């Protein structure tokens, strides 16, 4: 079968399963569940995929009971579709992950219809993108290693290809001293807040010496209980980010850790450093797949912008997958002048237009999978 025939089959299949794609988008939207609690969403998606002939098994259940792995086909080409389905507290699907699930499942079903015996098609149910970042753990467990490529599309205020995301290391520093009455003439204690504030201002200075694109955000979350007791404990939380994982891990973090140690030593406090959220790597969009998305968006009459490789607005656990296999994560427009994590975005994610765009997204993803399949290295 040639490429064009396969892409025609995909477009027809997506139109045919429109009720399935809309069904996912609507059900998840009207039953929003936050990260690691997406039981109804995961059950619904498992059911849809089982009905479509996929065999569905738990994936990393020891850590994420709402994760799953669905497989169909047994061809040599291993294609992954990444589904997310967590919502935000009190806002519902304000990041549009209901549409991500709808697109990825729809695309996988359509690609399976076209690829026949040439491919093995995987759908990864990836919970908690907004919080625990299940893909970070999945990546550590090597679940993506055998893939030839993977795709995911994120809803947005414009359709766009390219860009990256920040590698991020959320680090908590706890300085521990000794409490004492501030007025006790004989016993002065060790002021952990002094150490912490000193570290905070030195961190600000160090920040200005880093030469590659980066961000350091820091707040003091504990700095004493009452003013007449010398604070014995001070806690600072920082989100330390860089456009490149390598720069973050090998240049920034060692210097920041060393600075914290030095400061603690000078003040005579103990110091503990722990990361309190998952460690996301930067997103490397596969350049060839970027081009395929551009070609297929053109075929589907979907206008798009192209973002610079250094453009990043946030962090995502898809970045970790991009270190395991070729990945591409473009964005698709579901409404104008909307910003993620707002109620306006949540209503766009439940709109008729949002669902129509999910059809375009599902088609584009499956058609890109065809383009990868037709690369010489996958043709014998
Ligand atoms: Zn989000
Ligand atoms: Zn999101």
Automatic annotation (TrEMBL):
Any one of the GO BP annotations: folic acid catabolic process
Key words of the record: Hydrolase
GO molecular function: dipeptidase activity; para-aminobenzoyl-glutamate hydrolase activity
InterPro entries xrefs: Amidohydrolase (IPR017439), Bact_exopeptidase_dim_dom (IPR036264), Peptidase_M20 (IPR002933), Peptidase_M20/M20A_hydrolases (IPR052030), Peptidase_M20_dimer (IPR011650), Xaa-Arg_dipeptidase (IPR017144)
Family: Belongs to the peptidase M20A family.
Stored PANTHER family: PEPTIDASE M20 (PTHR30575), XAA-ARG DIPEPTIDASE (PTHR30575:SF0)
Name of this chain's protein: Peptidase M20 domain-containing protein 2
Species, as recorded: Megasphaera paucivorans
